Amino acid sequence: MSEEDKKAPKGIYEYYEQNPKTADEKVFGRVSYPDRRGFLKGAGLATMAAVLGGAIPFHRNMPAGMIPAAFAEGLEDVLIEGKDGLTVLNDRPMNAETPPHLLNDDITPTTRHFIRNNGIPPTGVDTDSWTLTIDGLVDKPMTLTIEDLKNNFDVVEQQLVVECGGNGRAFFEPKAKGNQWTYGAVACSSWTGVRLADVLRAAAVQDGAVYTAHYSADKHLSGKEGKLPISRGLPIAKAMGGENLIAFEQNGEPLHPMNGAPLRLVVPGWPGSCSQKWLTRIQVRDQVHDGPKMTGKAYRVPNRPVAPGEKVAKEDFVIIERMPVKSLITSPQTNTEVSGNELIVKGHAWSGDRKVDSVQLSTDFGATWMDADLSDPANEGAWQTFNAKVQFPQPGYYEVWAKATDDQGVSQPFAIAWNPKGYLNNSFHRVAVVVKG
User: Fold this and answer.
1) Which fold does the domain 326-435 belong to in CATH?
2) How far is CA 435 from CA 332, 337, 343, in A?
3) Which of 16, 34, 272, 374 is the most core-located residue (most Cβ within 10 A)?
């Protein structure tokens, strides 16, 4: 055993106290946390085991350079009015994610739905006087109150996944600019509203329609009048799908102010930026919409694989549409200690506008896999839940990995190709488990 191994601390926090130079503090708002990447470079197996608090039975299967899941999380909880346990990444604009273990519910409570804002939310909102305008390439332009929507169209309730396109950005190397989301910029609440397609049909969309353009009441961070923080849209074929809602309720209650009250779009399976909050207008256009966050590199990825850190010309980016297949372990919480050799694992899986066919789990760093029980989605656009009982052959440090495969045969990868904006990270979710003897 090396001298370094002999001196290795017995726990995670002792390690950081004794090795402050490896902590590399990063600050998001008032929250700070250590960057754990690379802190074990050059360390022996004994050092790694000591820091993790136990032996690693399947260490021979660990991919080279892998950072243990035990060190992948750890942000402190920050209180937000009407929210429970979210972690703030930025307070101007407000952006906050939900730790995976707080997403265990089949239907995400409003208190635990993540927040992704681009500007300053409106204040003093009057639901009764709020209006939505439908115009552009339509034969029957309309301005509707929320009561008009409720009275003139079928009101439906659907469980729908909303996920930020940058969910998982924190795990890209080299770092991509933007909020460093880990796993929690996703949710599946129950939304009540009217179908976007029904409203567009009532407005009589013209044959030349190509794209919708969405506008909202939030203000640009600069405060400049008329400058929009974000205005995205959808191809007309997607907009006419029956899964998209103009929503005025979340989980049977009015929308949370940070989630778009009193009216928003919910477009499941596509980046959350398509689900415009504080919705005031939908314009039908004869071209791809060119509003803020629709052009340049925003919500776009390269049209080909690129090397990490490679510079990519703007014209070589394409707009993100459907989100990739993905899964999330919600129980156990990472860094759980287990007495005994069995553990129930639970979580959710989703795949853009496709269905998930299977979820598999591994406890030996991907050497072998077992099938989890997987539910059907409650409706189109909802996530699916999975559960399984896993067994551990002996005490020590383990990781539970989850891998989903969709109905087109596409599976999650262990690691994905880098892209400049850090979008679409659907690599395996890993949680750390220490089994005590």
Assistant:
1) Immunoglobulin-like (2.60.40)
2) 12, 6, 10
3) 272
According to CATH, where is 2.60.40.650 located in the chain?
A: 326-435
114/164 Cα distance (integer angstroms)? 9
Tokens 């029904």 correspond to 198
β-pair type (264-266, 253-254): unpaired
Please state, in angstroms and as integers, the Cα–Cα distance from residue 425 to each residue in 47, 227, 300, following that order: 30, 31, 13
d(CA 321, CA 112): 25
At 345-377, the pLDDT tens digits run 999 999 999 999 999 999 999 999 999 999 999
Show the 3-state SS of 369-394: CEECEECCCCCCCCCEEEEEEEECCC
Q: How far apart are CA 163 and CA 97, in angstroms?
A: 11
User: What does the alpha-carbon distance between residue 92 and residue 229 come to, in Å, rounded to a whole number?
Assistant: 12
Question: In sequence order, which residues have a C-beta less than 8 Å from that of residue 47 and are 6 or more positions away?
Answer: 2, 4, 5, 8, 40
CATH no. for 131-319: 3.90.420.10
Long-range contacts of 90-93 (CB under 8 A, 24+ apart): 90/28, 90/29, 90/179, 91/29, 91/30, 92/221, 93/117, 93/118, 93/119, 93/120, 93/221, 93/229
The model's pTM is 0.85
